[in-house]
């Protein structure tokens, strides 16, 4: 359910807020509570690496994009 609601929210203006919030970040970023990765596409090119942490088991499984975190 969270995934559906947050996807709708992105279309209603949250995407622009994410862009504004993440503007100016550089280098390595640690994202705590990464949930369903929606911030990832909004990081500027100046971000070299994102280290993401998610405490919720369900969301963490969906967050994983690397074989090492399975």
Structure description:
This protein is an alpha+beta fold. The protein has one domain (2-69). Helices cover 40% and strands 19% of the residues. It has helices at residues 2-22, 57-63; strands at residues 27-32, 47-53. It has a two-stranded parallel sheet. It is flat. It starts with a helix and ends in a 7-residue tail after the last helix. The model has no long low-confidence stretch (mean pLDDT 83).
Topology as a string of helices (H) and strands (E): HEEH
Question: Strand share of the residues?
Answer: 15-25%
Strand order of the largest sheet: 1-2
Considering DSSP H and I runs of 4 or more, what fraction of the residues is helical? 40-55%
Instruction: Kindly report the average pLDDT value.
Output: 83
Distance between the termini: 23 Å
Q: Indicate the overall shape.
A: flat
Low-confidence stretches: none
**What is the domain tally?**
1
Q: Which structural class best describes the helix and strand composition?
A: alpha+beta
Treating each run of at least 4 consecutive H or I residues as one helix, how many helices?
Answer: 2
Radius of gyration: 13 Å
How is the quaternary structure best described? single chain
Overview features:
70 residues, alpha+beta, two-stranded parallel sheet
Question: Summed up, what is this model?
Answer:
The chain has helices spanning 2-22, 57-63; strands at 27-32, 47-53. With 70 residues, it is of the alpha+beta class.
Q: What is the strand and helix layout of this fold?
A:
Blueprint: H1 2-22, E1 27-32, E2 47-53, H2 57-63
Parallel strand pairs: 1-2
């Amino acid at each position: 359910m969270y995934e559906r609601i947050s996807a709708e929210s992105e279309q209603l203006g949250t995407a622009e807020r994410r862009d504004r919030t993440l503007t100016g970040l550089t280098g390595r970023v640690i994202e705590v509570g990464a949930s369903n990765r929606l911030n990832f596409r909004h990081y500027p090119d100046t971000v070299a690496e994102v280290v993401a942490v998610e405490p919720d088991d369900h969301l963490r499984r969906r967050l994983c994009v690397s074989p090492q975190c399975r």
